[in-house]
Amino acid sequence: MGLFKKKLKQEHKVMLQAERAGGALLPEYHRATPECPHPERWHMYDSMTAEAEVLEFLRTLVTTLKPSLIVETGSFLGVSTLWMAEGMAANGFGKIVSCEFDPVVFTKARENIESSPFARFIELRNESSLEMQVEGTIDIFFSDSDVDIRAAEVKRFLPQIRPTGLILMHDASSHMKTVREAAFALETENLVSCIFLPTPRGLVLAQKRAGRA
Ligand SMILES: C[S@@+](CC[C@H](N)C(=O)[O-])C[C@H]1O[C@@H](n2cnc3c(N)ncnc32)[C@H](O)[C@@H]1O
Q: Domain limits of the chain?
């Protein structure tokens, strides 16, 4: 029986775990890195949703920068989307376009968003970040989809990102090398300037070089 049991996709497995946990916060369990030796000092809802402290940071960025347009890649259950939307609700304006590629995960994210008081700030799309079209100038670009395509999605949206805006790339710790190396490569290509925040999973804050005053 075990041999024939279909292997659950990681996103679906974590989605079920998150449902069972019912919103309880756990100590962060991603492994310690030289830049973040005590990940257990942070908190998480599950291993896909950004760390709880990073969610708070995202909300505060929104109230600090007053963005009109945020693009997020990788909605998962819509938790980071909702935290940023809460910031927009405090601001009284703004729109988040968030895309989730997986249709099962998308359906769950849509349910979560539709049952929240912040739905009016969110446009959720069941699309790939590498295909979706967004109108307008992007104030915050939050790259949080599949780690292997982060550089490609940042490059794809770069012309639309405001020079004074922010590019965030999650999962850029030295343990999860792919995104960190993608961010270094974007710097080497002279496309962006990066700051590497030493959170458990790593968060890059970047600004594009073109158009800086
Ligand atoms: C790390 S999770 C996102 C977590 C979410 N931003 C949060 O913090 O609450 C990554 C998600 O990206 C989705 N994904 C993977 N490739 C994608 C793509 N090309 N376009 C959009 N979503 C993608 C996965 O299905 C997964 O749900």
A: 49-208
d(CA 102, CA 128): 9
Residues with Cβ < 8 Å from 109, sequence gap 6 or more?
Answer: 75, 76, 77, 78, 81, 98, 100, 124
Distance CA 119, CA 115 (A): 8
CA of 179 to the centre of ligand 1 (A): 14
To test the ligand 1 pocket, which listed residue (76, 104, 123, 141) has its Cβ within 8 A of the most ligand atoms?
Answer: 76
Given the CA of residue 99, which atom of ligand 1 is nearest to it?
21
* Atom in ligand 1 nearest the alpha carbon of residue 142: 6
49-208 classified as CATH 3.40.50.150: yes
Per-position pLDDT tens, the chain of length 213: 445 556 678 899 888 888 888 888 999 988 999 999 999 999 999 999 999 999 999 999 999 999 999 999 999 999 999 999 999 999 999 999 999 999 999 999 999 999 999 999 999 999 999 999 999 999 999 999 999 999 999 999 999 999 999 999 999 999 989 999 999 999 999 999 999 999 999 999 999 999 877
